[in-house]
Amino acid sequence: MGNTGGRDRVVRMSVEQPLWRALTGYRLLTLVYAIGLFASSYEVYERPWVGAGYFVVLAVWTLVTLPQVSGARRCTKRFLTADLTIAVAGILLSPVAGHERSVTGGATLPSIWTAGAVLAWALKGGWRWAAGASLLVGVANVLQRGDVTRGLVHSVLLVCIASIAIGYVVEVARASERTLARALEIEAATRERERLARDIHDSVLQVLAMVQRRGTALGGEAAELGRMAGEQEVALRTLVAGGLVPTSRASEDAEGGAVVRSMAELGEPDEPDGPDEGDGAGPSDLRPLLAGHAGGRITFSEPGAPVPMRPAAARELAAAVSAALDNVRVHAGADASAWILVEDEPDAVIVTVRDDGPGIPEGRLAQAEGEGRLGVALSIRGRLRDIGGTAALISIPGQGTEVELRVPKK
């Protein structure tokens, strides 16, 4: 349980944050442009001190409020109102400064800096807020020029359409971000449920099944205890199976009556951030984790050199091998023999578990999953999925079963 925090952590990313950074740059560049435009035509103003005073205010405001346009959290409605007020004031002050071109079709004092104020409304509130801010700027331009010209309509429509489009994109991006975050949360919760289900299968369910078998064999009061254990086992299996997302099932060969390979190709594993992975410990040798299975009817074959793996991956792979051997003991019988083969290839570690039992009848794996018996689905394929590996099962009735576990090297 110590590593579940790292495994279930959901990484949230902001799709709209690059737009806020772009807006910050836009406001700075358009401030420089507006000041340069004013300076280049300074001598044609009748009251240039009005324009100079406005640009002092505009420059101070733009620089001081840079943090407010760094993200949606800091960009409050109060700031947006003040920002748009300064833009509208600059438009209305243009004729007061005495620049005739500002009335007959030239640029106003804030020039294209005004679009940045409208875009801030779009990023914060979406296309509806953008439409309202654009309309207010359009009215200010009409009042400043005293007439509705083709050029004015073109400029106002351009700002309006651009801001509404950006506002709509932001709304879609936010909805997509919420959907993605929810999907990641569901995936993390599903992974945790699967991990808990594997642990339950490997411990509690195994013990309950053993108590049921032993109790039935002993008879008497032990038989009653075994019956109760069996009921609890069925109830727990139903609970575990009901809380999981359906897993992939082994494909069936309709012609040969064999259960063939079913590759659980799953994504990148979540790296736990517990002390066993983050304390600087080196790779673990897989061989000692598997050597303990060797016995009278289990043959263990290993390479002559260490098989290094990440500690967490090595433990999960060893647990999957244990689950495969448990299936051999339960389903193939006490007299069945098993072989464990470890192969250390350049790009992957492969462990094969093979037995000489009766094999798996056609459709048995799918039936077992439907009954809540998820040993193969969770304890084997589920473990390999979580470490980025795959599990392949080959079984032909009467010829035994082979489970191939492959973990790619990172």
From TrEMBL:
Record key words, sorted: Kinase, Membrane, Transferase, Transmembrane, Transmembrane helix, Two-component regulatory system
All residue ranges annotated as the Signal transduction histidine kinase subgroup 3 dimerisation and phosphoacceptor domain in the record: 192-237
Positions of region (Disordered): 265-306
Stretches with biased composition (Acidic residues): 267-279
Transmembrane intervals: 20-42, 48-67, 79-97, 152-170
Superkingdom classification of source: Bacteria
Gene3D superfamilies with a match to the protein in the record: 1.20.5.1930, Histidine kinase-like ATPase, C-terminal domain
Domain DUF5931: 9-181
Keyword Kinase: yes
Histidine kinase/HSP90-like ATPase domain segment(s): 315-409
Classification via CDD domains: HATPase_UhpB-NarQ-NarX-like (cd16917)
Protein's name according to its UniProt entry: DUF5931 domain-containing protein
The species this protein was found in: Streptomyces endophyticus
